[in-house]
Amino acid sequence: xxxxxxxxxxxxxxxxxxxxxxxxxxxxxxxxxxxxxxxxxxxxxxxxxxxxxxxxxxxxxxxxxxxxxxxxxxxxxxxxxxxxxxxxxxxxxxxxxxxxxxxxxxxxxxxxxxxxxxxxxxxxxxxxxxxxxxxxxxxxxxxxxxxxxxxxxxxxxxxxxxxxxxxxxxxxxxxxxxxxxxxxxxxxxxxxxxxxxxxxxxxxxxxxxxxxxxxxxxxxxxxxxxxxxxxxxxxxxxxxxxxxxxxxxxxxxxxxxxxxxxxxxxxxxxxxxxxxxxxxxxxxxxxxxxxxxxxxxxxxxxxxxxxxxxxxxxxxxxxxxxxxxxxxxxxxxxxxxxxxxxxxxxxxxxxxxxxxxxxxxxxxxxxxxxxxxxxxxxxxxxxxxxxxxxxxxxxxxxxxxxxxxxxxxxxxxxxxxxxxxxxxxxxxxxxxxxxxxxxxxxxxxxxxxxxxxxxxxxxxxxxxxxxxxxxxxxxxxxxx
Length: 480
Hints:
Layout: H1 4-40, H2 47-60, H3 62-83, H4 86-92, H5 97-138, E1 158-166, E2 172-180, E3 189-200, E4 206-219, H6 225-229, E5 233-246, H7 268-297, H8 324-390, H9 397-421, H10 427-450, H11 458-479
Antiparallel strand pairs: 1-2, 2-3, 3-4, 4-5
Helix pairs in contact: 1-2, 1-3, 1-5, 2-5, 3-5, 3-8, 3-9, 5-8, 7-8, 8-9, 8-10, 9-10
């Protein structure tokens, strides 16, 4: 069972761990709030859905909040023990630093196991429900989603751009452009107006645009080629007109409707199943394209004796066998076919590369389920000895040090994962590369702290610098 010392160390660790975890969770969640505040505020959505959305996305920031909380709390715990000479008292009593770390190693190990199950079973569901809820919320009240200088195409069949919005309710407009694509799905009809006003009907089923001082342009389709070259169009002006848009697709309804899934919303079993499906799809795609290429570019050897004119002698140069009046046409056709084939191969190469990237993303996500737990252990083995070496507790130096270490770890992780996503590195290796770099550092710091190293002692570095200077003088004297 745990001794009195073990209980004391665990209690000293848990308090800052819980505080820092919730602080970091709130801080990271605020990044999400600021990012989507325009999509959440003023849409008439019930507060219950907003709270539910924040709850879902709080699970999404868990993989970032947990490692930095373990790092910071471990530095604070052992920094306070060193600052109050409690570590010195433990060592004088025959208790080594590794022995003092043992109950916390067990605690962090259990936290890491819980982090794996949370990442594998809770976060995918939270991402799934959170993203769907966010999509459904973003469809509410499109008048608020029409922004200045940005094309808005959420209303089926129309694309709207407004240069300026003003007024108490932001419903007064300037320089309005509306592309009508309800007919042939192309921008053949355009309506412009210098000023306008938009309002929603009381039943919220229609959006009304009252436009003033504008023009309407509409291309006139024709089947005659000569007429198409003239680009005929119909132009009309208006002093005032009204356009209404149906909002039936934007009704609130069930905001919990689920309609999308991707790799961030799958657990390990589902990721492996999806990867197997993608592997089969890639093999079928490659085989199909290879067979098509062989069928298209396979040339059989022709027996000249079987030709219609066996008495002809063919030149080895292909163009020499073609009449002069046809050479230009043949060259043009050959170039056109070559360009077409090149575009086809480039497209197939991009399609195959995209499929490989999708597989890589699933592999990355599968490994990330496990790497989070391992990173918690690594950061503890960095933070605990680091705190014992610097011997500073509280929220001052430990916070600065932990933030720097975590930024380095996070930048390495993001950079290596990007290499894996772009297929520069093998996806599994790219996920574990950052942990592989920091693991020896953790062992090194643990060794130094256990042996009372002067790793951060300025006097020790001063002595070392003096020795280097003396050695340099000896080398210079010897050369002379």
